[in-house]
Amino acid sequence: MKILLIGATGTLGAALHRTLDTRGHEVLTVARGGGDLRFDITDPAQVSEVYDRAGRVDAVVSAAGHVPYGPVTELTPEDYLAAFHGKVLSQIDLVRQGIPRIAERGSFTLITGVLAREPIPTGSAASMANGALEAFVRAAAIEIAPQRVNAVSPTVFTESLGEYGDYFPGMPPVDLADVTQAYVRSVEGAQTGQIYAL
């Protein structure tokens, strides 16, 4: 398959690139500061240009999304809008603009996260964004068939515990290898409207 990988230079994106390449897929990488194509998917015009440059693809895989963290009493309306634009709307636009540009039975795999179901202090913007995106996936799946859309919703990566582990007290981490296999399941399988929680 020809796969468009968004967020290819991050921790997860790099692992996905290796995994998908090893499985024999042609992977076209996209990131703000690196990859085959350098674009910012929070800009709808740049999403359109990504698809123009990529040409027809079989699957779109997203490992990109940024949200601010902070106490509810300190986060501003602009912070919540930034979370919505940085993680939700950007990925919705990948689907919205991608529907006419991917294969008839192509797929989209988006990234959410554990905070949709297991909130933490300072994580309300992330919880909002992840929950909204998961609701979108379930709704979009019933409209875009035979194309498919799923989301991968991991907890903190084992490989990132040193940096982020303190923010997720008591939550079991997940190995990147397990997260990448959830993406493989979404891309190569037949399910749609699924949230793969890890």
TrEMBL record:
CDD domains in alphabetical order: Lin1944_like_SDR_c
Entry-linked SUPFAM superfamilies: NAD(P)-binding Rossmann-fold domains (SSF51735)
Coiled-coil ranges (or none): none
Pfam families reported in the protein's UniProt record: adh_short_C2
Assigned keywords, A-Z: Oxidoreductase
Database matches in InterPro entries: NAD(P)-bd_dom_sf (IPR036291), SDR_DHRS6-like (IPR051122), SDR_fam (IPR002347)
GO MF annotation: an example: oxidoreductase activity
Family indicated by similarity: Belongs to the short-chain dehydrogenases/reductases (SDR) family.
UniProt protein name: Short chain dehydrogenase
